[in-house]
Design goal:
The protein is mostly helical. It has 3 helices and no strands. 2% of the residues are buried.
Length: 55
């Protein structure tokens, strides 16, 4: 059951340190973050890495 959910949201485990920090600051579980929000977090991280900026 959980495998299908993880694949449908394109989540990878373990989380990157940036994703882990986001979850800790917001004090939420990964399932509580909306899929579009996950996409924004991932896109922000990729852009930062592309520009050699630490997210």
């Amino acid at each position: 059951m959980y495998g299908d959910v993880i694949r449908s949201f394109n989540l990878w485990f373990p989380f990157t340190s940036f994703e882990d920090t986001i979850l800790r600051i917001l004090n939420i579980a990964p399932s509580q973050l909306h899929p579009n929000s996950w996409a924004f977090v991932k896109a922000f991280e990729i852009v930062c890495l592309g520009l050699d900026i630490e997210p």
